[in-house]
Design a protein that fits this description.
Layout: E1 2-9, H1 11-14, H2 17-28, E2 35-46, E3 53-62, E4 84-88, H3 92-103, E5 107-111, H4 120-130, H5 164-173, H6 193-206, E6 210-212, E7 215-223, E8 226-234, H7 237-240, E9 246-250, E10 253-255, H8 262-270, E11 275-277, E12 280-289, H9 290-297, E13 316-319, E14 322-330, E15 334-337, E16 347-350, E17 359-368, H10 380-395, E18 402-406, H11 407-412, E19 428-430, H12 433-436, H13 439-455, E20 465-470, E21 477-479, E22 494-496, H14 498-501, H15 507-524
Parallel strand pairs: 4-5, 4-10, 5-6, 10-22, 18-19
Antiparallel strand pairs: 1-3, 2-3, 7-8, 8-9, 11-21, 12-17, 12-20, 13-14, 14-17, 15-16, 18-20
Helix pairs in contact: 3-6, 3-15
Length: 527
């Protein structure tokens, strides 16, 4: 017999399977010896009051054994010799599109401008060591996309657009902890995600697909209003024989290049392929000591204690007609350099699986609409990002040292004469953000911080630090596609996909969009 029930336990009891089993026995009046196994199905923390509780949905097995697998596997078939499709980009949108194509009997050929997920690590380390950014291998470009080394959070609100459970199960099938099926805010961790991404790539190859790294799309092959493939440049001298060779890849195209592929946006505009400017959000990374966030969120001067995870927060408000909100909150994490080229400073956040660092950070950003910036063409928001990132680079002494300011000094428009210790490895430089950040961003941030401080006493503090600048919250461009077919509005055979196309925000929503695009391509491909 199997029973499912809801439990509300203390953090200590919720951390012990024997305590959970005793709670099940108490709720069901069943002898504990008859309960052969208890599996947690869902887990969330209720920290609204001083007494913290953990809500559990559990499945109790009475006098029977559970199955071995705690996830639902997907069957991937051999697609050797099947019709071929091209997937541009090996981020979550592209990888899940490729896997879904295999399910649907289409052979995916994935091309990725950056390096494989392991080799990327060396280039990321060089950003801190040399302050130089490889424009083809960085925190945004390379296998796994921006999520691979900038967190791995899997929380999404996109439940109406596709199966979140399917996406999480595919991650588990490729090595992620089954805890992501349980937790209200699932998180793989940037230290574990690379192994999962490698396993997904191996599935694609083992099933007859191809994956090409350091292979950068230059243009689409277009004939008679239909995309027939892509022309790509091999960027590695070792792979191209030193001459930067070009290759043609033929088939309908899923374009999943991520939100930072600005060369792709410029190509699309110059080729009169329909795109439009899209609203984004811009601000800073706000870094607190993680112990302080634990104290605030768990209402306890001793912090989270032994049985609770590093605390999270989520804030949102309105300031002068624009949203101000926290974004990509990283408890127990790091602030990282996320630029994709020279003369840029961009910051982002990440957390390891254990969320065990001494800092917690989040993006604190202000909503910006195309009418808020100069220009009325499709790239006006992108150019605004670029100008602000270069200004930040100048303020950071023309290195990857990021300009920063203590939180209360920013509120009071005072220069910070020193800065708190930070997780940002390239280093910080004190800078008057209140002076050079655009006024309509800075003023709204201050108003937002005031309101957040009223909601959470202690949040507004000079122990926290603002690190500039957070600009890559989403794509500044939308590639126009038909709502029903997901195909580009004028070009048959082109499926704009994921964050880079302006239709997703985060790992899971990009993965869902990748699967949807793959489904529509499979429906239309010529067999």
């Amino acid at each position: 017999m199997i029973k499912e029930l809801q439990l509300r336990l203390s953090p200590r009891d919720a951390s012990s399977l024997s305590s959970i089993k005793q709670a099940v026995a108490g709720e069901t009046a069943i002898n504990p010896d008859a309960i052969t196994c208890v599996r947690i199905i869902k887990r969330s923390i209720d920290a609204r009051q001083r007494n913290i509780f953990v809500n559990l949905k559990v499945r109790a097995y009475i006098n029977e054994e559970p199955g071995d697998l705690q996830y639902i596997p997907t069957e991937y078939k051999d697609v050797t010799g099947c019709p071929q499709a091209i997937v541009v980009g090996a981020g979550p949108g592209g990888l899940f599109a490729a896997l879904r194509l295999i399910e649907r009997g289409v052979r995916p050929v994935v091309i990725e401008r950056g390096k494989n997920v392991r080799d990327r690590k060396q280039d990321l380390a060089l950003i801190t060591k040399t302050h130089e950014v490889d424009p083809e291998s960085n925190y945004c470009f390379g296998e796994g996309g921006a999520g691979a080394y900038s967190d791995g959070k899997l929380f999404t609100r996109s439940k109406k657009r596709g199966s979140v459970e399917k996406i999480l199960n595919v991650f588990c099938q490729h090595g992620a902890s089954t805890d992501i099926l349980i937790d209200a805010h699932p998180h793989i961790g940037t230290d574990r995600l690379p192994r999962v991404i490698e396993a997904m790539r191996n599935t694609i190859i083992e099933c007859g697909g191809e994956v090409h790294f350091q292979t950068k799309m230059e243009s689409l092959i277009i004939e008679g209003g239909e995309v027939k493939g892509v022309i790509a440049q091999i960027t590695s001298p070792l792979l191209s024989g030193g001459d930067g060779g070009r290759l043609s890849f033929l088939g309908p195209v899923i374009l999943a290049t991520g939100h930072s592929a600005r060369d792709v946006y410029r190509y699309l505009q110059s080729s009169n392929i329909d795109i439009e400017a899209k609203g984004i959000a811009i601000g800073v990374r706000l870094e607190h000591p993680s112990r302080l966030i634990d104290q605030i969120q768990y209402h306890n001067p001793n912090g989270r204690g032994e049985y609770l995870p590093a605390a999270e927060y989520s804030f949102v408000t309105q300031a002068d007609g624009r949203g101000v909100y926290s974004f990509c909150m990283c408890p127990g994490g790091f602030v990282i350099p996320a630029a994709t080229g020279p003369r840029q400073i961009v910051v982002n956040g990440m957390s390891p699986a254990n969320r065990g660092t001494r800092w917690s950070n989040s993006g604190m950003v202000v909503e910006i609409h195309p009418e808020d910036v100069d220009g009325d063409d499709a790239l006006c928001m992108m150019r605004y990002q670029e100008r602000l990132e270069e200004l930040c680079w100048q303020q950071g002494n023309m290195r990857q040292t990021a300009p920063a300011q203590r939180m209360m000094d920013f509120m009071n428009k005072k220069v910070s004469f020193d800065l708190p210790e930070s997780s940002y490895a390239p280093g910080l430089v004190s800078s008057p953000l209140h002076f050079w950040l655009p006024e309509f961003i800075g003023n709204r941030l201050r108003e937002g911080f005031r309101k957040f401080g009223q909601q959470s006493r202690g949040f507004l503090t000079n122990d926290a630090c603002l690190i500039a600048v957070e600009t890559r919250t989403s794509s500044p461009v939308r590639i126009l596609r038909d709502r029903e077919t997901l195909m580009h509005v004028r070009l048959r055979g082109l499926y704009p996909c994921g964050e880079g196309a302006g239709y997703a925000g985060g790992i899971v929503s990009a993965a869902i969009d990748g699967e949807r695009c793959a489904d529509m391509l499979a429906e239309n491909i010529s067999v």
